[in-house]
Amino acid sequence: MLKLLGALSRGQRAYVFLGIDLALIPVALLFTYAVQALPTSPLQTLQASLPVLPYLLLIAAALSKWLGLPNIQLKAYERFAIGLTALYATGLAVALAGLSWIAELGLPAGTHVIFGLCYFLFVVAVRMALLQVVTAIYRRAEPRRRVLIYGAGTTGTQLAQALSAHDSIDPVAFVDDNTSLQGMLLAGLPVHPPARIAELVRSRQIARVVLAMPSLSQPKQAQIARRLQKMGLEVQVLPSFAQLIGEEALIDKLTPVAPQNFLGRKSADSALKEASRSYAGRTVLVSGAGGSIGSELCRQLLSCQPARLVLYELSELALYTVHQELEQLTEGMGIEIVPVLGSVTDPRQVRKVLADHGVQVVLHAAAYKHVPLVEANPLPGLANNVFGTRTLAREAAQAGVERFILISSDKAVRPTNVMGASKRLAELVVQDLATRHGGNTVFTMVRFGNVLGSSGSVVPLFQDQVSRGGPVTVTDVRVKRFFMTISEAVQLVLKAGAGAQGGEVFVLDMGKPVPILQLARQVIESAGYSVRDSANPEGDIEIEIIGLRPGEKLEEELTLNGGLVGTRYPKIFCAHEEHLSEIEVAGVLRGLRQALASGDETAARAVIARWVEGYGAQEAGRKRL
Known about the structure:
By secondary structure, the protein is an alpha/beta fold. The strands form five sheets. Strands 9-8-7-10-11-12-17-22-21 form a nine-stranded mixed β-sheet, with helices on both faces. Strands 3-4-2-1-5-6 form a six-stranded mixed β-sheet, sandwiched between helices. α13 packs parallel to α15 (378-398). Residues 244-255 and 618-625 have low confidence and may be disordered.
């Protein structure tokens, strides 16, 4: 049957509908005569009407073609088509009255009115019946996707009505949290509570759920969608009519707030001014140029008008991205941009790059910085952060580089994790070289806290969790961190590097540490949502406490001894700290090198625990546990 229906052309289907409509005319006449109090029987009256029937059929065929009724598809047979059918039936009733008067059939005037009404009802009923039959045939012949509609409001019921005649989608039921709707029948479908979803999925073989609740907040929609996806269901979200016509945004109702807005203090951004002289006209190499700090260093260095900017980066994608951006920014400025793909742990490549390009200033930002990743992979972290720094710094000294600036971290102060310890060892390496090569190369380092908006930092993480409906994860309610903007961090590096005399550890006054729990609330509220907790159980986003990660501290420090000396730059201080001797540094590097060669993580941690202040206490605590 399906093949037969599919083989019919549009014209052939129109003739079928026309034939059905014409065949209904004698049926309607017979029914009309049957319900009328006429002197003769219905069949006798119909027999008496046979002389006018051919003319009535011709008029019906012409009128039907003129109105276009045979060309209307079954699934499109709605109010407009029904109106045309009423007009068609009225025309036939008038034609019957005229033909009866000409043929002198003697039928009462009311007979023609009843015929028009009966014929109209017969045509509409047959069309509806045909639609059900054809739909049933298609449903049996082709597999249909059974859909559960989550939300029995106006949007949900409109969706159910629209899908009822769909060729491949079969809406089977509603689910709604509103208890007053549960148990009712809407648009021909039952309304169930959400608790029955799993049962409905099994019993009704449901494959897809459509969320028809556009007024519900995005986080709550995301939470429902995630719960349904865990059940193996395909989830789709239906936008509101206002969203479809462009009066309301389809995705986010608010633009994510810039990370620097969560700083909690006035930004210390200021122009480089005289500090730019240390970089003007020089060849500057930035290691880790594709990272958050490295790329911002490159951008701000452009205002210093260096002669050449060497981008040293291990990631091909990151190098390509920053190179493309800087090429556009330097168009017409006369600054040469040199992309170099490689690792700072490769001494031959580092030596060649420094010599070939005549590098005069090195800004060393290349490092593995994510605490949990380095904690899980301590040997690669130590190799890159410690030996990479030593290789680049030593080759810079031998090449006669004017300045070498190390980008360090507050996590280097009494670290409880391998990443922080590796940065502290990198500082010790640079301090050692500063004492031995102070006459030719100025070695210095800049230590600062968390950078808002950098890759992997907490604010973008929180914003991503909010966009997915939460929860926002905080390790501990007591955790506090120092924060600064990327722009602040880079200005600190460039200013401190310009004013360095050798061996200093520069620190920025970053104000008071910010509680991470408070920051999480700010991110949620800035996105236009509320925090869901015991005080507000109907809130949008929940904050989940997940516990401290391995190697994580409750609070970070900026100096080992707390002593800070002011510099000529406001909010930039200098920390004079004890460092290891040349022999001790050599011993540290020898122990680490042996641990790396043998792949012995325990030996590497033992070296760190011996030479890095603060790390040994953590190791002892770990062993006791």
